[in-house]
Structure formats: structure tokens, C-alpha cells
Amino acid sequence: MNVLYLSISMGAGHLKAAEALKEYVDQRYPDSRSQIIDTFKYVNPIVHKIFVDGYLSLIKNIPCVYGALYRMSERMENINRLSNALSKAFSYKLVKLIKDFNPSIIVCTHPFPLQIVSCLKKEKKINIPSIGILTDYVNHPFWFHDNIESYIVAHDNIKRDMVKCGIPENRIHTYGIPVSKVFLQKTSRCKLLEKYGLKDKFTVLIMGGSLGFGNIKKVFLAFLECKRDIQLIVVTGKNIKLKHQLQNFINHYNKNVLLIGYTNEVNNLMDIADLIITKPGGMTISEALVKELPILIMSPIPGQEERNCYFLTSNGAAEKIDDEKDIKKIIDTILDTPHKLKSMREKSKMLSLPNSGYDILNLMESLIS
Asked: Which of 54, 128, 160, 324 lies at 20 to 30 Å from 216 by C-alpha?
């Protein structure tokens, strides 16, 4: 099985989904050839820089503008036409890659490369089974194409929406977002506490995504000032400045804190944690659900992350922090009412789809055959 994964590095989640699925393919087909392509970077580095840097600047500095653009893209035909025009413009370079690599199947974990693949199939330049994996808990018209064999979605509500929009029901599969196989394993908490030099007490994991976005500083300070006997694990991602700022705060408080920058050991940290506080990015949420973690949501980006937040809170697996002043009240409630934490953990387990990688691989096999 030769697999071409097409994604875009707007945040880490899209590429991580492709990397996760590759693990399952490589395990079953050790002789397979796989290639993960950051599509914009491949077809035009300048366009990649404009789009990715522009996206990151918007969500960091003026997220409300990004939210408005996101909502406009759901209903304005002109934006969709522009997206289609860009896809056609970029498709010529991708054709050569596809023909040279000669994949058995194409997997897209971002809507823009999926749109390019759709254009190529419509123009009969390629005829290769193709899958789109939606990496959020929400739908969007950019994913809708008639000539894509299968879509992978995170829950039945998305499937119903897509059917209403004209996508054949038999092409939509509620398998969930694939996570790395390490998240399917459970490591002894005692061993992990010893490894990271932590104590055996209630532990809160605070994460801001790979880029360290969100109100981590305010949330962190609120926890440092909390009088309850808890310890903290804080992951600042690639935000080195934020890590230095938080280190300065730690020195002034008597709290047990593990402060980490970018790490590949999030699975271990989730095995230690009793609760996670995070932005509701699709991949991080999927990993937390597989680990059956109760979730507190901070700083959702207007648009897809707001919708992710609504899905989780409406299903009882998460609560949203609207103000860091609420943290003391929320923690008191959780610590003083253990059944609340237990209920959130049970809801997380119900929403998780740990077999996603294997289910998608089985589907890939059937499409190829």
C-alpha cells in the first residue's frame, strides 16, 4: 500500500493526523511507501508563508476577524469560488508529484489539498481513491466535493449535516480523528510520577497547543494562587517567551509545577493528569478523549474551535472557562464533588473513538481493492 498524505501546517493538528494514520499503515504494511506533503509549502513557499503567517497572525492578534472570515466562508459563494480558483492554479504542480509517486490512495487532512485533488479528479488528470479526514468536531463547506470516495468525521451530527448538503451517506464514516498509537497505551502513573519528579496528588495539565496560544499566563496565575493542594503540569509548546515568563512566576509561589516547552510526551502527561485545561483544537481534544480526561476549555479561536467547544460542553465532557476568575470556583466544585469529575470522565470515554486509525486503515484497504 503506497499512501500520499496531503495536509497543510496551519497549526499542528492537520499534519499530526496524517502522521498518526501513517503509524497504522506502516505497522500493517512495513514495506509500504508513504509521503506526507505540506501542500502549500510544496506548491509555492511564498503562498505558504502568506497563508500560514496570515492565519497565525489573525488568530493571535485579532481572532474576531478570523472568526468573521470563517463564518463568511460558510455562506459566501465568492469565497468558495476564490478557493476553487486557487486550487486549480496550484493543481498543476501536484499532478507531477502524484504521478511520480503513484500512490494506491490519497489521504487529505486539510480541505484545501482535498479541493485540489477533487479538481484533478474532475478534470480526469488522476483517478486514485481519495479520503478526506475532518480534523475538527464541526462541518464546513470547503470539505464538500462530489468526487471524493470517503469522508472521515468525528461524530454523527457532522454526518447528518453533510448528508443534508448532498454528500452521499455511504461515503461518510464516523470513525473519528486518528491519534498516535502511543495514546492507546496506558503507562503506570506511579512510574511516570517518579520519572517527572512529581507528587501523588491531584494534577492539572495546562496546554496551549503547539504554538502556546491562549490565556495560559492568566490561567496559570489563577492556579498558582489557588489554595487547594494540587500540582500543575504546563506545556507551552514552541512559545519560548511564554515559558520564561511562567518560570519567573513559579519562583514566587509554593506550588509543585512541571514546566515543559514543546514535547512529544503528551501521552505520558495525560496519563498523570486528573484534568486537562486546553484550547479545543481537534487533535488535542481527540487525544484527551481517548485518555478519558475531563476537559476545561480556554480561549477557543472563533470559528471551528468555538464549535468544538460547544460540542464538548453540550455533551458533558467539558466546561468552558469564560474568565480566569472562575477557576477557583470550578476547581472547588470538581474537588468537592467527585461525582462531577467521574461524570465528565465517563462522557469523555463515550465520545472517544480509540479505534479510529484501524477503522480508517480498513476502509483504505477496501477502497484500494
From this structure: 54
Phi, psi of 162 (to 5 degrees): -70, -35
Single-letter amino acid, residue 58: L
- Contact predicate 286/179, CB 8 Å: yes
Report the percent of the chain where pLDDT is more than 90: 54
DSSP string computed for 322-334 = SSGGGHHHHHHHH
In a 3-state reduction of DSSP, which class is residue 348?
Answer: helix
> Is-contact 139 335, C-beta < 8 A?
no
* pLDDT tens digits for range 324-338: 777 778 888 888 888
Q: Which domains does the chain have, with CATH numbers?
A: 3-179+354-368 (3.40.50.2000), 182-351 (3.40.50.2000)
Residue 258's closest CA among 319, 339, 204, 314? 204
Q: Which cell numbers in the block locate residue 234?
A: 504546563
Whether pTM > 0.85 for this model: the answer is: yes
Q: What are phi and psi of 193, to 5 degrees?
A: -60, -40
Q: Write the CB contacts of 220 (distance below 8 Å, at least 6 apart in sequence).
A: 206, 232, 234, 246, 249
Distance CA 162, CA 159 (A): 5
Q: Please compute Rg for the chain using Cα positions.
A: 21
Amino acid, single-letter form, for residue 363: L
Closest-CA residue to 315 (of 344, 284, 356): 344
How many C-beta neighbours within 10 Å does residue 206 have? 24
Q: What kind and span of H or E run contains 157?
A: helix 156-164
Residue pair 38/8 in contact (Cβ under 8 Å)? The answer is yes
CA atoms within 13 A on the CB side of 279: 27
pLDDT tens-digit map of 203-245 = 999 997 555 555 788 888 888 888 888 999 999 888 888 888 8
**Backbone angles phi and psi of 236, in degrees to 5:** -100, 0
Buried b or exposed e, range 89-110, using 16+ CB within 10 angstroms: ebbeebeebbeeeebbbbbbbb
Decide if pLDDT at 124 tops 70: yes
Nearest residue to 314 via CA among 281, 276, 351: 351
